[in-house]
Amino acid sequence: MSALDGVAGRAFSYGAGIGGAHWRRGDAGWRGGVELAAARWSGRQCADYFAGTTRQASSNYCIGVDGDVAMSMDEDDRAWTSSSAWNDRRAITIECGNIDNSTGEMSQKTWDALVGLCADICTRYGFWLNYTGDRNGSLTEHRMFASTACPGTWLHARMGKLASEVNVRLDGGSTKSDSKFGSSDVYLVKVTCDALNIRKGPGTGHAVVGCIRDRGTYTIVGTSDNWGRLKSGASWICLDYTSWAGSAKASSAKAADIDAMARAVIRGDYGSGEERRCRLGEKYAAVQRRVNELLK
Hints:
Layout: E1 14-15, E2 22-23, E3 31-36, H1 43-52, E4 61-63, E5 69-71, E6 77-78, H2 85-88, E7 91-96, H3 108-125, E8 139-141, H4 153-156, H5 159-170, E9 187-191, E10 196-199, E11 208-212, E12 217-224, E13 227-230, E14 236-238, E15 242-247, H6 248-267, H7 273-280, H8 284-295
Parallel strand pairs: 1-5, 3-7, 3-8, 4-7
Antiparallel strand pairs: 2-6, 4-5, 9-12, 9-15, 10-11, 12-13, 13-14
């Protein structure tokens, strides 16, 4: 069964109840938490382990190495996942099987199921994934709350990519790969560090060709693991030091809307002075800038 088959919109193919669960107690602020099971397990094996263990360990969902998804405990219940009650009460947590215990590498089927499950959760609860590298984002890791390497080096290096692929899907895009460097989706990211190297290719083994220092927003036109290709040229930045800033398609649509309103202002459709300001509302400044550009 695929990751998005199931009942009532829930993305799972098997359920195993966990005893001793805590209710979330109404804590606000939905987020997603991703962990790594140190085993080459199916989702069902992982859920059965949690159901039978005396350890205070569990997750809301388990994804197996073949991409099967099992619900270990209901989303209304808090799992014991991240060593943080504060985080677990807010997070819907996911445990993933791996094919390499030394790095935590996932199979492609596990990755695809993880993206699908995260997108399903975000759709139902109405939020986007924002990976900030710390506990302040809406996508978290066990290592943010405890002295542990979980979820492993492989997934840790791809958390930014996970957020990007999920958000592209939420915006109606695809996450299929191009022939050279991974995903060819177009989206916006905001730089979150003071100095981010621009490299000739996707990886630290490629030469540095520049540096971003303005914490600005940039268009990404291709993705390879946790690296994004800049629209401005054949150069790449590490997405670990960025946050999702929206869809390039949405940005283009907004720009087209501002342009159309500016042209209507020039025709006199919005009046002048205070009348124009009131009718344009929060878009007034952007529309007026475009008016000035068109009248130059």
